[in-house]
Every structure is written in structure tokens, then in C-alpha cells.
Amino acid sequence: MRALIFICVLVFCAFQIASGVGAPNYSRIELLSGVTALGDGGPILLGIRIEPRPGWKTYWRAPGESGLPPVFTFRAHDNMDAPQIKWPAPKRLILQGLESYGYDGPVIFPFYVQPHNIAAPARLEVQIDYAVCMDICVPEQAALRLVLLPGAAKATNDTAALQVAAARVPRLQNENSQPRINTAQVQKNGTKTFLLVEAEAANGFGAPDLFADGPSDLLFGPPQISYRDGKLKAAFIMSITPLDPAIQIIGQTVTLTLTDREIALEKQAKLAEQAQTE
User: Which of 6-15, 22-31, 56-65 has maximum average pLDDT?
Assistant: First the structure.
């Protein structure tokens, strides 16, 4: 049992219980809450924190050439909407010559829940299956439970960390986003296939990176980046390797995640073949 917090209002008490079942050997895992009780019924920020051993890492939703993505299975979400896990922007990591996408230290996967009735307890149970890797990859599993009772909501010791994690989640690109992804097209060069993504940054690019994830049988290589107009524009070229030779690349929808400095944004793109010029 991770915490037992009592908040007394007049003669009533509200409390939160968070507990983990299972004993991961190469990491620590916790279910965090940003508040101590249900409060006035607004959305509540929660998060699942995974802390691998020093030198170990865990993975993003698209792990790259190695590793396994975490799988979050919500066994119960009483008196609340079904949660939707958010994924902080990943890092590009190398393990034994293989490139993967993930986190080389503690990471919090934030999400919000919306209580239905603030006069009744809200209960959440989640099972997490994930892997942590260094020289080897080790599967880990835990089951976590959280109960939030009615009452005045106060910040917890985890509120600030949850807010930081939420800020690391890429924002969906809109008409005002800067930097922004402009186009995504497929290029063919003999037997090889590439994804060409063009982007712009009103204040210039610093050290951008681009991640692509889509169908599990498409593997995207690291981007080669070139700049124009004093780094106001960037072109990213990524190899596309179909793990299933029968898959049709054209027409597939991929999620592009563009990162630069502390900014991260996402855009979905339907892959079309680049028009040939005379």
C-alpha cells in the first residue's frame, strides 16, 4: 500500500488508497494522483510512473528495432470514464547497435479521468505489462489500484511531477503550431522506399528529431535531416522497411511526432506517393 491520506471536512473524511500488486525486479512502478479526493468533479490528473534501474530503459508506444511497448489494461474504472494513456515524447536510444525509442530514466505516463458522481467513490484498477532493457530485456508486470473518495481535493506531493509529464506529451498540430509539419510523401528509389517529411519553424530549428509510427509491420529508420532558408525549413528522409512484403505502404496512416528543444507535436498523415516531375 503506497499511501493512506485522510482529509477531514467537518465530521467526514475523504481518503485515497494506491497500491501495487506484483514485484518488478528491475524497476519501480507507481500509480500517482495529483489530488487527494474527487473535489468539485473536474478532470483529475493521474499517472503511471516507471523507474527502471540506473542504466536501464523502457519504451515508447513504438519501440523501434528492439524492445516492447508498455501495455496498459484497465481492469476497472468505476465512477469514471475509461482512461486514455498519454505518451511523453521519446528519446532515440541505441542498444547493442539497434535503435529504439523510449526513456532512459524515470518516466510518467499521464492521463486524465472524469468522475461521474462526486458523491460516490471512484475506483481504478490497471495492469501494466512492460519491458526494461540494458544488455538484456526483462519483462515486468504490475497491477495497481487507486480509490478516490468524495471530499475537498488538495494537491499531493506528485502534482508537480504529473504536470511536468503532461507538458511533455506532444500536442496535436493545429493551424497555429510552430514548428509545424507541412507534407509527408513516399519516395521510391529502386527497391528502396523512403518517407520524406517537410517541416518549418518560424524561429528556426535547433536540434529537431522526427519519429514515425503506424502499422506494426512498417519499420521506419532514423531521419537524415537537411535545412533550407537558414534552418527555417527542414526536410527529414526516413527509410521504410515493410516487415510484411504484401503490405501496401501507399494509403497507410502514420503518426508523425516532431520534437525540437522542449517542443513536441504530433500530426497524422496519410501516405501518398511523391509526384514525379518531368
Answer: 56-65
Say whether domain 172-273 belongs to CATH 2.60.40.10.
Answer: yes
CATH number of this structure's domain 3-169, picked from the four choices 2.60.40, 1.10.287, 1.10.10, 3.30.1380:
2.60.40
- Give the list of residues 6+ apart from residue 91 with CB closer than 8 angstroms, or none: 101, 102, 103, 104
Maximum separation of any 2 CA atoms in the chain, in Å: 81
210-231 pLDDT, tens digit each: 999 988 888 899 999 999 999 9
Nearest in space to 234 (alpha carbons), one of 196, 265, 266: 196
State how far the Cα of 146 lies from the Cα of 153, in Å rounded to an integer.
Answer: 15
What is the structure's pLDDT at 128?
96
Q: What is the pTM of this model?
A: 0.88
Looking at the chain, which residues constitute the CATH 2.60.40.10 domain(s)?
A: 172-273
> 165: helix, coil or strand?
helix
3-state secondary structure of 55: coil
Place of cell 492521463: 111
Residues near 67 by Cβ (< 8 Å), separated by ≥ 6?
58, 59, 95, 100, 102, 131, 133, 137
Task: Please give the single-letter amino acid code of residue 80.
Answer: M
